[in-house]
Amino acid sequence: MDASTQNTELTASFTTAAWDRIAPIMAEIEALPLLTRLSDGTLPPEIFRHYILQDALYLKHYARCLAIVAAKAPDNAQVLRFLGSAQKAITVEQGLHAGFLTQFGITAADVTAAEPSPTCFAYTNFLLTTAYHRSYAVALSAILPCFWIYWHVGEAIKNRPVIEGNAFQAWINTYGDPQFAAGAREVIALTDIAARAASPAERIEMTDVFVRASQYEWMFWDSAWRLETWPV
């Protein structure tokens, strides 16, 4: 087996190996009370309001991360493919936020005045720092968990019995929707392409940031459940 063949085999399933690495984190995410009670419609409205406000703040920074990552893509085909999948995800989430902000009585002024929680602040700064200062492959691996984990969670909840009158059904429908799934699959594919061209050191860093971002995903939902604010 020559070196190029061996390298291809090692990197062809980068995302599969990365997903396997976060299996313990995913088990904790799937058990989060916020997601359990969102799926059965019993989540207290004040917790969901806190979550959706923080998510709106997060998305503003996440969109900028996506733009930075796209600008670092090595060729026009990947730039266009990445921008297309990113646009799908942002459009879907912005539509979801608009509906929920109205439904739960959150005004534009509330969004403007909202302050990121410690977890939201830390997560978005981690993503922005990685996007600015690391390679395309590493930055792509950092933004991937948001796509993939929301897709996974949405699919899992979507397959549970529908609760009539669930105020959060639109959230379930959004992340279980084929359009969101298509965007997530495209980013997974792009990450595998980037891994094939990455050095061994880069692939280690790709895995590290993928795991860290997945930990932040758990922290984000948990912090909303606890109505996290700055302690001092």
From TrEMBL:
Entry annotated with the keyword Hydrolase: yes
UniProt-recorded Gene Ontology molecular function terms: thiaminase activity
InterPro entries cross-referenced by the UniProt entry: Haem_Oase-like_multi-hlx, Thiaminase-2/PQQC, Thiaminase_II, Thiamine_Salvage_TenA
Gene Ontology CC terms, in alphabetical order: cytosol
Enzyme Commission no: 3.5.99.2
Domain of life assignment: Bacteria
Gene3D superfamilies: Heme oxygenase-like
Pfam family, one: TENA_THI-4
Pathway linked to the protein: Cofactor biosynthesis; thiamine diphosphate biosynthesis
GO terms of biological process kind: thiamine biosynthetic process; thiamine diphosphate biosynthetic process
Known role: Catalyzes an amino-pyrimidine hydrolysis reaction at the C5' of the pyrimidine moiety of thiamine compounds, a reaction that is part of a thiamine salvage pathway.
Protein name, entry field: Aminopyrimidine aminohydrolase
Domain Thiaminase-2/PQQC: 19-226
Catalysed reactions listed for this entry: thiamine + H2O = 5-(2-hydroxyethyl)-4-methylthiazole + 4-amino-5-hydroxymethyl-2-methylpyrimidine + H(+); 4-amino-5-aminomethyl-2-methylpyrimidine + H2O = 4-amino-5-hydroxymethyl-2-methylpyrimidine + NH4(+)
Protein family membership: Belongs to the TenA family.
Entry keyword set: Hydrolase, Thiamine biosynthesis
Main EC class the enzyme belongs to: hydrolase
